[in-house]
Amino acid sequence: MSLTIRGTAKARDQPSCNGFFCRMVCLPKCIFGGFSRVMGRRNQYQPSELQLQHPQLLHPPVVPEDWAFLVSFEQQYGTTHPFFYACSFMQALKIAEDEHKLMFMYLHSPEHPFTPSFCSRTLSSELVVQFLDANFVCWGAIADRGEGLQMAATLQPASFPFCAVIAPAAGNNIAVLQQMEGPIDPAELVEILQRTMEEQGSAFGTTVRGREEEHMRARIKEEERIKARAKEQEKLRADRQLREEQDAAYFVALQRDQEKENLRNARAQKPIEASNQTNYQNPRQMHREKQLGKPRQSSSVGEAQYKETITQGKDTQILIRFPGGERREHNFSCTDKILSIYRYIDSLGLPGIANYRLISSFPRRVYSFDQMGMTLKDAGLHPRASLFVELL
């Protein structure tokens, strides 16, 4: 237990030790253990009239620990007394903190010679009862049992009856603002309590209010953080929805462009097929021309006609390999599409090359009908590439 004496002042001169002072006291851990108990109030437990008339019928195991002081007091001195909370010390201290009041603690020693006069004259006085009920949270305990014994060992009173004004402090400490020991009359007790409230109660009230303001600021900050997080999540959802809508619109537009491109390709394929049919030669005639060393006029003418339609700006070189081992090299523009390569191959009028597709060797990639709308640059064929004609 750590004990620090802050200051000492003497009350009116009395035969007994009626001093009061302020000090910080570190509470033992056993005091905190009682905080989990259910708090009781006066209407929760009342001894029966038969028990009040015959105290010997009231066995200690029947009375809850929190009610021991109150039952003992009312059996001897009646029910006119300050409202003592029948709960643990820590619960009463929490109630005082919540109500912005100081705590009045009384340790009751039934066997002490000064106790009967103090209880019957002072604690049962209407002046004391009204003043304490209006300004303090009162808690009492028997000094030789339970939490009363623990508080007596902690505060170490020199005499009884023992009263103290308590306020919560930081950590496991309490502040003993005033301490009164021995007999004291009602007017003097009220005067000391009034002076304590005026001198030190405002400071501890400010501390409590400051703690509440700090909690309030923390709650406001947490609410603002929650609102900011919700706003950020809402913005993320809106952005994600916008991207999805944009992607959907893009795919729709891309599909329309693909359909238009397919339609143009179908229209352009008709004259090429007609040209291929015109330039077709049967295998026997081709074999005979090859033996005689005659050039293939149809292929050369078709290729020459295709070349005449090509303009300048060719920056992509494509090497085309045919199934028979033949190779053709042609220059295209990087903005030309895969369709341009198909048209070039069709313009050659090579026999047997009608239904086919283009494949790159490394990395292997197929350039078929779905890729005809891609530019050579987007297809990775710029500035130089090699393609193989695979018959279907």
- Biggest sheet statistics: 6 strands, mixed
Strand element count: 11
Work out the count of structural domains.
2
Give the terminus-to-terminus CA distance.
96 Å
Class based on secondary structure composition and strand pairing: alpha+beta
Mean pLDDT: 77
β content, as a range? 15-25%
- CATH-defined topology of the largest domain: Glutaredoxin
What is the overall silhouette? rod-shaped
Helix content: 40-55%
The H-and-E topology, N to C, reads as EEHHHHEHHEHEEHHHEEHEEE
- The name of the CATH superfamily of the largest domain reads Glutaredoxin
Indicate the CATH class of the largest domain.
Alpha Beta
Polypeptide structure, described:
GO terms for molecular function: ubiquitin binding. One of its GO terms (biological process) is ERAD pathway. It comes from Gossypium raimondii. With 392 residues, the protein is an alpha+beta fold. The protein folds into two domains: 3-219, Glutaredoxin (3-Layer(aba) Sandwich), CATH 3.40.30; 296-391, Phosphatidylinositol 3-kinase Catalytic Subunit, Chain A, domain 1 (Ubiquitin-like (UB roll), Roll). The protein has eleven helices and eleven strands. It has helices spanning 29-33, 49-53, 68-77, 89-98, 115-123, 126-135, 146-155, 186-278, 283-292, 297-308, 338-348; strands spanning 3-10, 19-26, 102-108, 136-142, 162-168, 173-181, 316-321, 327-332, 356-360, 365-367, 384-391. Helix 8 (186-278) packs parallel to helix 11. The model is unreliable at 1-21 and 34-61 (pLDDT under 50).
